[in-house]
Amino acid sequence: xxxxxxxxGGAGYLGSTMVPExxxxxxxxxxxxxxxxxxxSLAHVCHHPDFDVVRGDVRIESVMLPLIKKADIIIPLAxxxxxxxxxRDPVGASSTNHDAILMMLKNLSKQQRILMPTTNSxxxxxxxxxxxxxxxxxxxxxxxxxxxxxxEKELMQHANAxxxxxxxxxxxxxxxxxxxxVNDFTYRAVHDRFVVLFEGNFKRNYIHVRDVTRAFLHxxxxxxxxxxxxxxxxxxxxxxxxxxxCTAIKHRIPDFTFIEAPIGKDPDQRxxxxxxxxxxxxxxxxxxxxxxxxxxxxxxxTMIRNTTYGNV
Length: 312
Description:
The protein is of the alpha/beta class.
């Protein structure tokens, strides 16, 4: 079945990968984005007759109401993503990540479906073994994670909702983010050949950006059995430490050097092992491995070099 799908923030890192796939499945897709990074990451789908795009602010109810009204499914990707950005502009982060979502939920009918990315960063450091399932207590440490926890609680009150607690995402996208951990470390390996680690034993889970899209498509196709549930989405064989991640990168870039700082600590104190058994039991299995993503990023960084503030 084909649907009218509204994707907020659809020109971002996740959306610019997801929107073409939604169109390829026969859905009609409307994107609203404020294009705050001046990106043209959806230029390659402008030819598609089932694609529409609106430049606007998801926090403005009068802008959102007509778009919400015609949608069968809403995928709210618009957000201030990550702890540093949220810390720099807490008012913008709270109004976008929290208030705008509650406004959307208030205006949805019970028949309209909403599939939303939340975050497994809300687990903090997990239990005494750092192990986390969807039933584990949430211990969000950053404003970003705190707001996501609040929103998820409201989201699950809606009659037609699925929450995907995403692992740390990696991989190439038309609207690239170099700051995500795998992307960042691989970029440093390609261009600097070294990285200094803080608390290199800290673990987290990872998922390729294209597998995020596949998880959302899976949720759309399997709504009857997945509706009303929260799912971790990550690679079960990629609960790895920073040291282990760097070792994997070094396998592809042999002259990459990484050392652990003898003093200091990472401001991001997340350290957990995440179970993805629940979503795997619905028939979903990621396709793209961590090693695949590293190789892809190496090719991508042959083309990309962030020299905005550099002399060479």
